[in-house]
Design a protein that fits this description.
Largest sheet: 7 strands, mixed
Number of helices: 17
Shape: elongated
Radius of gyration: 32 Å
Number of strands: 34
CATH architecture of the largest domain: 3-Layer(aba) Sandwich
CATH class of the largest domain: Alpha Beta
Strand content: 25-35%
Helix content: 25-40%
Length: 686
């Protein structure tokens, strides 16, 4: 098994949306003879994008998995989504990999989203190979992409293959290390040939640069290079691999996935340069303990994705961290304090699952069906050697929508259907807002939420409406007042009587609620004082001017009277409520709106438009920083103005802008807007 593991590769295809990662996966699987024809995203025929939502929108919305053989060695492939709406769990997917093939588009080059996704690769500390795709397309510009790798991503690229020609004239590759040319035949197969004379000087220059970069990553090689002025191809490969594993060097391959150009050379690079699972650094546990990525260690496996399959049911996709795993094992789930009896292990070829008969070791990606108590983020392990992997961080949800049932009375069905999606997608969140009564679905963007609802409707046959959520406004006061709340009711026989005097005054923003008891001489008996407090709090929750909770105020109860027979807790609760409402009306009540802390990332050329747009949304720009052509703009913007921002930013920046936001504080609502909201609430109440 050790020899097999040394040659095994487990890697993720990573890149922003539209770079053609799924087409690269198709090319890899075609060259590995897993599929006998290249599928196309436009036709919905790819092996890895098979969900109806993916076929409809022509792009990945969830990861794809495939197992294949190259040169008799096992490779496990994870195809990650690239759209900003669907990359929230990329940290989990990268936990499943030992290395990365980072796909960059030869037309668009390095964009803000490229940098964002590359930062995830850096955070995961994984070695990478860059594949420059779409060299056969119009406007393909290899030099522009290559410069962007250095200037924007800040990496040290080592060019393995120089393209011969571009666009419709992309006809071959030059192996820079060996100074050999290969030309594409009709089916993408390579035919050796002479390096074209017009690029021979450039190839020699690149080769010299490559040797210097490789020598710099290894002291022994550097000494030999300085003494002899050259290195053997074997020494160069050894030094290059060492540089890749230490993340000092990033090899670059080129091709055109849809035409199967460059696929076999990419597969060779994956085999020769990416690490084996045995070279993975030790895994860190929740308690700080370490577990080596070794077959000699006890078994541990991390469930990094859950998939619902229409035939097999719930599949837990697991990366083997250490030890050996086979079908029918009983393992522990320390997080849930339970045991799981595993059934048949399954490997993936896109939507097709294949039964795994033999034992697998570190680096294997397998699925197990119908585990009872295991969810994404759990670690399964040997009962006698517990280990819980430290979970990767995922970004907070940035957008929420309210859900409603199309048919009255089916709210619980809607809640149950969407709840099932949460098992699959850890970047979704479903909550009920007690204040507004809304069922809120939160996610990474508008498209993320819309497609999740589409999936729930299709799978669970339930009608769901998506609505803009209600804004959680607040009410507060700006002045002081002293008022009496007196409740007296005679109904024949025992009546109701409660009488209190309160002083209402504002507190600083965010201070909450304070109740002070200043009753002396038993003006109100002690047992009725909590009832006054409760009446005030209940009235504050329902609001006074627009039906929103009143916040940041202090109430002092300083006088009152009672009746020895007619007074009761209920009477004093009502008296407290009456006093509070009357006092608020005298204290210059105002409406507060939630303000979000927003960070927007855009190419420098869009900075002016984006800042102007933020200002038009009543936002206050706090500052901006530019780094390698990408500007981060920080601002405070009212939540009410951010509900459609994802869509507008996409239009404004041609899909290149991204943003994050979180609640920051409450601020007084401008009078014209407050008046409109108060008017609307009165109409609704009537």
């Amino acid at each position: 098994m050790l020899d097999k593991l040394e040659k095994q590769r487990t890697f993720a295809l990573v890149g922003h949306g539209g770079t053609g990662k799924t087409s690269v996966a198709e090319m890899i699987l075609f060259n590995a003879k897993v599929i006998n024809r290249l599928g196309k995203i436009e036709e919905g025929t790819t092996c890895l994008d098979f969900e109806p939502e993916e076929i409809k929108r022509r792009g990945s919305v969830q990861p794809g998995f495939a197992t294949y053989k190259w040169q008799k060695n096992t490779h496990y492939l994870i195809d990650t989504p690239g759209d900003n709406n669907f990359i929230g769990d990329i940290s989990y997917l990268l936990t499943g990999a030992d290395g990365v093939v980072f796909v960059v588009d030869a037309i668009d080059g390095v964009k803000p989203l490229t940098k964002k996704v590359w930062s995830e690769v850096e955070r995961a500390d994984l070695p990478a190979i860059v594949f420059v795709n779409k060299m056969d397309r119009e406007r393909a510009d290899f030099d522009m992409v290559y410069d962007g790798l250095t200037n924007i991503l800040g990496i040290k690229p080592v060019l393995l293959y120089l393209p011969i020609g571009a666009e419709a004239n992309f006809k071959g590759l030059v192996d820079v290390l060996e100074n050999k040319a290969y030309f594409f035949a009709e089916d993408g197969k390579l035919t050796p040939g002479d390096v074209p004379s017009e690029i021979q000087d450039k190839v020699l220059e690149l080769q010299e640069m490559m040797i210097e970069n490789i020598a710099e990553s290894d002291e022994e090689l550097m000494e030999k290079y300085l003494e002899e002025g050259s290195l053997t191809p074997e020494e160069m490969y050894k030094g290059l691999r060492a540089g890749v594993l230490s993340r000092e060097l990033v090899p670059v391959c080129v091709g055109a996935a849809l035409e199967n150009k460059g696929g076999s050379k990419l597969l060779d690079a994956i085999q020769q340069l990416l690490p084996s699972p045995l070279e993975h650094k030790p895994w860190i546990g929740e308690d700080g303990s370490e577990r080596a990525s070794s077959v000699e260690e006890p078994f541990a496996g991390f469930v990094f994705k859950t998939i619902v399959d229409p035939f097999a049911g719930q599949l837990s996709v697991m990366r083997v961290l250490s030890g050996k795993l086979s079908s029918d094992m009983t393992v522990a789930n320390p997080l849930k304090d339970t045991k799981e009896k595993l059934g048949q292990l399954l490997a993936f070829e896109g939507k097709k699952q294949i039964s795994v008969k033999e034992e697998v070791g570190p680096g294997a990606i397998v699925a197990v069906a119908k585990l009872k108590n295991t969810s994404t983020g759990d670690t399964l392990c040997d009962e006698k050697a517990p280990f819980v992997l430290k979970k990767p961080e995922i970004p907070p949800c940035i957008l929420s929508y309210a859900l409603a049932a199309e048919e009255k009375g089916e709210e619980d069905k809607v809640f149950a259907a969407v709840q099932k999606l949460l098992d699959e997608d850890i970047t979704l969140s479903l909550t009920r807002n007690d204040e507004t009564g809304d069922m809120l679905l939160s996610g990474m963007g508008q498209l993320h939420i819309e497609l999740s609802v589409e999936k729930a409707k299709r799978r669970y046959k339930v009608g769901i409406l998506l609505k803009t959520p209600k804004i959680p406004y607040r009410e507060t006061i700006k002045g002081k007042a002293e008022v009496q709340g007196r409740y007296k009711k005679q109904t024949g026989g025992r009546g109701q009587f409660g009488d209190c005097w309160i002083r209402l005054e504002p507190l600083p923003r965010g201070a909450g609620y304070e109740f002070v008891d200043q009753i002396v001489g038993g003006a109100i008996p002690k047992q009725y004082i909590p009832a006054v407090d409760k009446g005030i709090q209940e009235a504050a929750q329902k609001g006074v001017i627009a039906g929103y909770p009143v916040v940041d105020f202090k109430v002092t109860l300083y006088d009152g009277s009672y009746h020895s027979v007619d007074s009761s807790e209920m009477a004093f609760k009502i008296a407290g409520s009456m006093a509070f409402k009357k006092a608020v009306e005298k204290c210059k009540p105002v409406l507060l709106e939630p303000i979000m802390s927003v960070s927007v990332y855009v190419p420098d050329e869009f900075m002016g438009d984006v800042i102007g747009n933020i200002s038009s949304r009543r936002g206050k720009v706090l500052g901006s920083d530019s780094d390698n052509g990408i500007t981060e703009i920080r601002a405070h913007v009212p939540m009410a103005e951010m509900l459609q921002y994802a869509q507008d930013l996409r239009s404004m920046t041609g899909g290149q802008g991204t943003f994050t936001m979180e609640f920051d504080h409450y601020e007084e609502c401008p009078p014209p807007i407050a008046e409109k909201i108060i008017e609307e609430s009165k109409v609704k109440e009537e």
